[in-house]
Amino acid sequence: EPEVTQTPSHQVTQMGQEVILRCVPISNHLYFYWYRQILGQKVEFLVSFYNNEISEKSEIFDDQFSVERPDGSNFTLKIRSTKLEDSAMYFCASREVRVATNEKLFFGSGTQLSVL
Amino acid sequence: DAKTTQPNSMESNEEEPVHLPCNHSTISGTDYIHWYRQLPSQGPEYVIHGLTSNVNNRMASLAIAEDRKSSTLILHRATLRDAAVYYCILRDGGVQWSGSEKLVFGKGMKLTVNP
């Protein structure tokens, strides 16, 4: 089965540094998402992206966060100036079509971000 | 998204069927019932979804109550690999073009499978 690929699997950074998390969604998918999961907590929605623009974002997704689809295959999440509380597992997901009967999200294995 | 209620945890034995319940008493007529699971150190994984009729796929079956206020995910023969957190999520399928596209995860239910 096709997969969503995320790199790196682990990222360690210093507080205040910029990080870019990378994702390669499934090739014919049109909708892209970032979620995060702080250790021991729920999977939280960050942002959804369609047709080269953000379609929805959560309160967590403040000005420090941005997303981009720089080419036809990659989907990135940038955190401009990381804080300790940004430490979490970040999951990318993608979906094929906007039809209720086929709304299956495919998730990647995640990038564990540790901010020191 | 409408709320769902699941037990915090369940235990089952390997190779036995396991029924995972979910209550969604405030479900609306256009809400689809989705199940995802999250294995340890993995991203969530789609399991199954349905609207009114019972559904079967290679992973599981979904039994939906006639009034749609509850549903049950059925794993016909639990394996050790089925140990995961299972999420029952409602998604509004009625407003396709302007409704929220996201899935909202709750705490889910941790399934332990004993050898």
What does this structure look like?
The complex is a heterodimer of chains A (116) and B (115). With 116 residues, chain A is mostly beta strands. Chain A is 0% helix and 49% strand. Chain A has strands at 5-7, 10-13, 19-24, 31-37, 43-50, 53-57, 65-68, 75-79, 88-95, 106-107, 111-115. In chain A, a hairpin with a 2-residue loop joins strand 5 (43-50) and strand 6. In chain B, the strands form two sheets. In chain B, strands 1-9-8-3-4 form a five-stranded mixed β-sheet, with no helix packed on it. A four-stranded antiparallel β-sheet of chain B has the order 2-7-6-5, with no helix packed on it. In chain B, strand 5 (55-56) and strand 6 (61-64) form a beta hairpin. In chain B, 0% of the residues lie in helices and 45% in strands. Chain B has strands spanning 9-13, 18-23, 31-38, 45-50, 55-56, 61-64, 70-75, 84-92, 109-114. Chain B is an all-beta fold. Chain B contains no helices and nine strands. The model of chain B has no long low-confidence stretch (mean pLDDT 90). The A-B interface holds A 4, 31, 33, 35, 42-45, 48, 50, 55-56, 91, 93, 95, 98-101, 103-110 and B 30, 32, 34, 36, 38, 41-46, 49, 87, 91, 93-94, 96-97, 100-108.
Describe the protein's topology.
The complex is a heterodimer of chains A (116) and B (115).
Chain A lengths: L4 E3 L2 E4 L5 E6 L6 E7 L5 E8 L2 E5 L7 E4 L6 E5 L8 E8 L10 E2 L3 E5 L1
Parallel strand pairs in A: 2-11
Antiparallel strand pairs in A: 1-3, 3-8, 4-5, 4-9, 5-6, 7-8, 9-10, 9-11
Chain B lengths: L8 E5 L4 E6 L7 E8 L6 E6 L4 E2 L4 E4 L5 E6 L8 E9 L16 E6 L1
Parallel strand pairs in B: 1-9
Antiparallel strand pairs in B: 2-7, 3-4, 3-8, 5-6, 6-7, 8-9
